[in-house]
Model the fold of this input.
Amino acid sequence: MDKITILGGGTAGLISALMLKESMHHATIQVIESSKIGIIGVGEGSTEHWDTFMKYIEIDPADLIANTGATYKLGIRFENWNGDGKHYWHAIGREFGALDEKTGLYPYAYKCVAENTDADSTVWKEVLNNTVTPPFTQVSNQYHFDTNKLNDYFHKLAKERGILFFDDEIDEVVLDNEGFVNSLVGKKQTYDSDFFVDCSGFNRVISSKLGAKWIDCSDKLPMNSAIAFPTPREEEIPQYTNSKAMSSGWMWRIPTQDRFGNGYVYCDKFISDEDAEKELRAEFDYDITIGKKIKFGAGYVDRHWIKNCVSVGLAGMFVEPLEASSIGSSIQQMFGLINTIHTWSRETTTYSDRYNADFRRVAENIVDFIQLHYITKRDDSEFWRWVKDGLVLTDFNKENFESWRTNFPSHCIFNDHHNMFKNINFIQVLHGLELFDHTAFKKMYKERYPQFEDFCTTLNLEAHNTLHDGAVSHREAIDSVLRGYKTDYITIGDIGFARKN
Done:
């Protein structure tokens, strides 16, 4: 394996290139991208998988913050999804996610459900108060960032690490007599390679030639349109993505250092693009400029790995921007690939078959989890009434949903290594949407698990609900990192970290 070609220079393509180069120093890694094709960039948030990726390719958090407009992300705040004006969180704190290995349960999470606590009890105080405690480069394993700046930054890193770039458009995918990809024919030149990664987005340039079929999930997740737009910088930077339910979908709001990225994800069967834009404008007391409109469909390919090509990013799966699953799934896919590609050969499908089975389950897991957010009490518009009565539950949700009313989702059905969302993720959303039977949980908590009170005591919940010494605002923390980044060497107490350029 001496040469690998990646088609597409968006986030997925650049992540793929950087990870492959780190794994295969000897190989030539080349990226074919077109300056005529822009990057989608509807989402500017990551999941916790981002931290593992950064460590793998050795990115300094301060470097990321300084070059990508990045801010800390400590979760997602869901506003008015039950139509009652309340909010809930998907932000797994240390206490809420603390596991009792003897029972396989989460005592503090169980306590929150049994006592029917409000959503804010599931996250730590600093998230609610938007403060950050030193060391500031170790605040979170997730970030928000400016997609265009991230793209520029990744290009810079990739070129420094010897990855080659070609600006071209592909006209033809050439297969050999065994059906393997032999080369890509561009307008400027032809690119041969031992292996290919298709990151060409919804076009699926290579995988469609290889016979990959799209599994449509639009009956389970009807979102198919998005309007994206920026709004000006504000002094306060939330540490979370805000997701507000709207008449026919939901609106995101993501803070970066210099602006907010915003958008409305909706189903155009229930609202026109013009009416969606009108509804958006009513949310702001100043004029907004729509940046882009995107059409998409929820689903994934039946096989991510065919012959000598793997489809990553939008070319392999896309559900919708909720929960920022696209970047996270790209990272998981690449970890799956780099753990396999060294021993792959053209003579066997053992590894590709296993990979396809694994990442089909990953795609299904994402669809299951995203769909869960739509099982709400809202019925105040045509869209939400349809969701309540007409949404087709996934097999997984249909099989387990009634059991979840009185039992926590068990970790044993979420044990696939590459899955992005585990039982604790499902638990917090189920609690936030008030889908648990709190009376049943209260009875079980009292009768079956009296030891959980002692467990919760050891978690030091007082600290969980207290602001820590040295805490500063999110903006002050980011500014401190930026000041330190420009200094040759620093050890300043109020900044909370030391680095040397």
